[in-house]
Amino acid sequence: MNRKQSVIIVGLLALVAFTGYLAIQLNSPIYDANAPLDDKSAVTMKETKASGGGFFVEQRLTRDRSKATAYQTLQNLIDDENAPKEEREKASDQYRTLALTSEREVDLESKLKGKGFEDVICFIDGNKVKVFIKSSKELNESQIKLIKDEVLSSTKIKDVEITVKK
User: Which domains does the chain have, with CATH numbers?
Assistant: First the structure.
């Protein structure tokens, strides 16, 4: 594979990452102007109806497909002997970062489900964590604090956006 092909692969990877980011942004709520901003943390409460859990299944499938495509693209670049060494090293670093982020998301979801929430899906995007909670009623302050504390202890990220799906 020549340099042109490597650039195309990196471009496609960037496109996949941008598409994932855009999907998250379009499906997430805007910040609530009345939400407390203490400790550089923002919590947004938005209640929407999720039919049966379809939202959570759909989001997991979308996330898994997007990450599988990114993994494959990165692995192809890493395995390409003709790609410049710097690009292969960069792809390897991105692969590790993506794997670590995926592991943290799943771990955080498991911990929050273990705390009694019916269903949870988390997205870690740089220095922000989006948490979608399935609940038939509004979260109380102790539940919000529990989620924020778990996110902070698992990811060391203070910027948390919480959305309640009914």
Answer: 3-165 (1.10.287.4300)
